[in-house]
Design goal:
There is one protein chain. By secondary structure, this protein is an alpha+beta fold. The protein contains three helices and ten strands, in the order βββαβββββββαα. The strands form two sheets. A seven-stranded mixed β-sheet has the order 6-7-8-9-4-3-10. It has a three-stranded antiparallel β-sheet with strand order 1-2-5, with no helix packed on it. Strand 7 and strand 8 form a beta hairpin. Bound molecules: zinc ion (ZN) (2 copies).
Length: 156
């Protein structure tokens, strides 16, 4: 069964036609402010593998420190954030895992930006956690690295 998900009101529904390549639990201040929560859970997946079943997400562009735009795809009715395109690459999306109908099926592979993790959020003992970011070549499974390279080209 392919995973499905939706915004809060249900106007936008989608199906994933592949499993995510990698899942981030991001504790950075931007994610905290944008969600109003302790962290954001983002599944990195080819945009082509997000099949929209109903509705049409609207793009809201946010500024980032890097200067590259961060496009957030939201339901136009309830404004739930469904996925993001960091840097407007068009082919790679950061899907908000908590919008899946079964969000427990893709636990985080890594915790990032734990330097700003809220002090009362404990991480599992075996969690791979990083103060800021991590080395993709070391942490990503080989098959996911291949998918990423097919998408963006080598070393991107
Ligand atoms: Zn909605
Ligand atoms: Zn973040």
């Amino acid at each position: 069964m392919q995973p499905t998900g939706s915004c809060f009101c249900g106007a936008v529904r989608y199906r994933l036609t592949a499993a995510p390549m990698f899942v981030h639990c991001c504790h950075c201040r931007d994610c905290q402010r944008q969600t109003g929560g302790a962290f954001a859970i983002n599944a990195l997946i080819e945009t082509a593998n997000i099949k929209i079943l109903s509705g049409r997400p609207e793009i809201f562009t946010l500024k980032t420190d890097s200067g590259r735009p961060h496009d957030v795809y939201r339901c136009p009715a309830c404004l739930s954030a469904l996925w993001s395109d960091y840097g407007r690459r068009g082919v790679l999306s950061f899907l908000r895992v908590a919008t899946l109908d079964d969000p427990g099926q893709f636990p985080p592979d890594v915790h990032i930006f734990t330097r700003s993790k809220l002090p009362w959020v404990p991480l599992p003992e075996n969690a791979r956690a990083f103060d800021i970011y991590y080395d993709m070549a070391k942490e990503w499974p080989a098959e996911s690295l291949k998918r990423r390279e097919a998408l963006l080209g080598p070393g991107k």
